[in-house]
Design a protein that fits this description.
Keywords: CBS domain, Repeat. InterPro entries: AMPK_gamma/SDS23_families, CBS_dom, CBS_dom_sf. It comes from Camellia sinensis var. sinensis. By secondary structure, the protein is of the alpha/beta class. The chain has helices spanning about 10-35, 40-50, 75-80, 100-105, 110-130, 165-170, 175-180, 185-205, 210-215, 235-240, 265-270, 280-285, 310-320, 345-350, 350-355, 360-370, 375-380, 390-400, 420-430, 435-440, 445-450, and strands at about 65-70, 85-90, 105-110, 225-230, 245-250, 260-265, 305, 325-330, 335-340, 385, 405-410, 415-420. The protein contains 21 helices and 12 strands. A 3-stranded mixed sheet has the order 1-2-3. Strands 4-5-6 form a 3-stranded mixed sheet. Helix 5 (about 110-130) crosses helix 8 (about 185-205) and helix 11 (about 265-270) packs across helix 19.
């Protein structure tokens, strides 16, 4: 069950404080496991340190899409969809013409984060229907925010005391509360609303006018850490690997707007384009096991059983800060599918899924998506490799199929024994020189990650 308790703020604080420790632990683990000769790593690291960020290809169209912080969630979804992008930097409209990125940008909004917010808000609105009136529910002007003070699935007025006016307002919009679920338990309320529930959340107030600014902090995947055009590609690679950023904004010194937006996927595409170069061909010809991959062992892989709830899968992704899970069956972890955080969009794009999302199993979710869309490859078909596969073939699969991870399986039974992510592949080629960010940016990486 999608358990959302009042301790969310404390959880976020713990995540911030442990962020650096987890980054250091990840990189230390990789350094101890990867088998690429240190001399070659140092040579590559030095080479990337000499390549300026300005040499990296610009985003398609040469213009980075930005979203103002006071843009509504519904309009934000439209912008992301129109431009076929999954995330965008959020600009502070109160910063005016400031060229200081700390004043000008508030973070990066991710489409998946928006859908998580909508689903959690939907649960709260459903719970509001368990009370006979807003007064009985203990709702008042001084109530806490809509994303707190609720244990999902609880019933009765006491369970939703402190629920925000906004949640009840959405739940009763259009007179739905009059005949669809009021006085029932939260699960029944959500099921009864069905497709109307979908309409309420996306099209009715107050959710329609909720802004990006209001959800950005609670639902951000990573801090906003830009680099300058004259920074080195080594800095970008470290941010995308050790410091687990999904994308790095590039800012031209003295200019107010973002010049470029470098993603993990874009870097892998460029690596794949290095075929024919001696250094790349030497490394890519080696098997993943000879290079120490996968860095994550089988017992460290977070997975989901096909008969578990799809909401549990997305909750695991959020809790573990990962972008996807292998779908497995049985105690031996036989892989039968894959779900990524990007797939959460299907819960909103397909009303037949949304109408029953609280009881939907992973298998039901995958089957429904397959039966209703033509673009199903990334949803159900797991991209796999063997321990004997070459790194070059893994990079090619990641680049050509535009996926973020490839699962390492046994030759006979397709049992998951590891996972190789974009982050892992980038980490293979580099190490972090002492005090790199302190020297390069003029302030500690600790300060950057706390933004």
């Amino acid at each position: 069950m999608f358990d959302m308790r009042i301790g969310m703020a404390h959880t976020e604080m713990r995540k911030e404080s442990s962020n650096l420790e987890s980054c250091d632990a990840y990189f230390e683990t990789i350094q101890s496991r990867k088998k690429l000769p240190l001399s070659l790593q140092e040579t590559l690291t030095a080479a990337f340190a000499r390549i300026p960020v300005s040499s990296f290809p610009e985003v398609p169209g040469g213009h980075v899409i930005e979203i103002l912080a006071d843009t509504s969630i519904s309009d934000t979804v439209k912008i992301l969809s129109q431009h076929n992008i999954l995330s965008a930097p959020v600009r502070n409209p109160d910063a005016g013409n400031s060229v200081d990125w700390r004043e000008r940008y508030l973070g990066i909004i991710d489409y998946s984060a928006i859908v998580l917010w909508v689903l959690e808000s939907a649960e709260i609105a459903a719970a509001a229907l368990t009370a006979s009136s807003a007064t009985a529910a203990g709702v008042g002007a001084g109530a806490v925010g809509a994303l707190g003070a609720l244990v999902l699935g609880a019933t009765g007025p006491a369970a939703i005391a402190g629920l925000a006016v906004t949640a009840v307002g959405a739940a009763v919009a259009g007179g739905l509360a009059a005949d669809k679920g009021i006085g029932k338990d939260a699960a029944t309320a959500a099921d009864k609303l069905g497709e109307d529930f979908y309409k309420v959340i996306l099209e009715e107030e107050p959710f329609k006018s909720t802004t990006v600014r209001s959800i950005l902090k609670s639902y951000r995947w990573a801090p906003f850490l830009p680099v300058a055009t004259d920074s080195s590609m080594l800095s970008v690679l470290l941010l995308l690997s050790k410091y687990r950023l999904r994308n790095v904004p590039v800012i031209e010194p003295g200019q107010p707007s973002i010049k470029n937006f470098i993603t993990q996927s874009a870097v892998i595409q460029r690596l794949d384009g290095c075929r024919g170069r001696d250094w790349f061909d030497f490394i890519s010809a080696q098997s993943v096991s000879d290079l120490g991959l996968p860095f994550m062992s089988s017992n460290e892989v977070v997975s989901i059983q096909s008969n578990e709830l799809i909401l549990e899968a997305f909750k695991k992704m959020k809790d573990y800060h990962i972008g996807g899970l292998p779908v497995i069956e049985g105690p031996n972890k036989k892989i039968i599918g894959n779900v990524s955080i990007r797939d959460i969009r299907h819960l909103l794009l397909k009303p037949q899924l949304f109408s029953n999302f609280r009881q939907l199993t992973v298998m039901d979710f995958m089957n429904t998506v397959v039966s209703t869309t033509h673009d199903t490859g990334r949803v159900i078909t797991p991209i796999t490799c063997k321990l004997g596969s070459t790194l070059g073939s893994v990079i090619y699969s990641l680049a050509s199929k535009s996926v973020h991870r490839i699962y390492v399986v046994t030759p006979e039974e397709n049992e998951v024994v590891g996972v190789i992510t974009l982050r892992d592949v980038i980490s293979c080629f580099i190490h972090e020189p002492p005090n790199h960010f302190d020297n390069y940016f003029g302030f500690a990486v600790q300060e950057m990650l706390s933004q």
